[in-house]
Amino acid sequence: MTEPESESDATTTILPLFPLQTVLLPGTKLPLHIFEPRYRQLMTDLVKGTVPDREFGVVALRSSLTREVRGLDQLYEVGCSTVLREAKRLPDGRFDVVTQARRRFRLRELDCVSAPYLIATVDWVDDDPVSPAGDMTERLATVARAAHQRYCETAWRSDDWHPPEPGTSIGDLAYALAADCLLPLEDRQRLLEERHPLRRLRIACRLLTRETGFLNTLGAVPLPPGELTDLSRPASLN
Question: DSSP letters of the chain?
């Protein structure tokens, strides 16, 4: 895990918190099917504007066996905020929603009693500064994009994936490359926590190369990204 920011560099805020058994990466979309009463209330508060900017936090559970979060030790320290973009309320009160991941945060305190859902005090986490893009940066980006293409050509049908936009920044590229790849939770968490963009891109490149090797060896093809929405359902909490 990277070193925490100093208090003077961090901006502290309050976020509703949604624990999941997956890691949300900045810039990615997250579809959710909401059926538990406390998270229905969260969606209602988001839609009505009770929660500022329709923004809430997603953080990964440390154990898939967790049934009720009571302390910070049950959650990974770094999560990602996400903004409600689409919300459809079903006749029975459930919601189908789509959110857009925004920015990383570090958990500071957890409030389990003030609302039906969890509320967290968080510090926003920024990237470390990097030098202006040079030849080395461009070469790394090219190698990482090639690793992503090899993975996707092995894992998906041609119409199930697309490369990140050419203008994607170095800071965002690792997240964009990992978005449609089936990486273990711990690897996605490592990408989320890494604050140096070039180190993060190197990590993504190594992970994609490793996973492509696994797929080639096993001859197994995972489900297409569009069929993975159930991963976003917090089976133990929602």
Answer: -PPPPPGGG--EEEEEEEEESS---TT-EEEEEE-SHHHHHHHHHHHHTSSGGGEEEEEEBS-TT-SS--SGGGB-SEEEEEEEEEEEE-TTS-EEEEEEEEEEEEEEEEESSSSSSEEEEEEE-PPPP-PPP-HHHHHHHHHHHHHHHHHHHHHS-GGG--PPPTT--HHHHHHHHHTTS---HHHHHHHHH---HHHHHHHHHHHHHHHHHHHHHHT--PPPGGG-GGGGS-TTT-
User: Using CA atoms, how far apart are residues 197 and 169, in angstroms rounded to an integer?
Assistant: 10
Predicted pLDDT at 231: 33
pTM of the prediction?
Answer: 0.85
- What percent of the chain is predicted at pLDDT more than 70? 87
Furthest C-alpha separation in the chain: 56
Res. 65 pLDDT band, cuts 50 70 90: confident
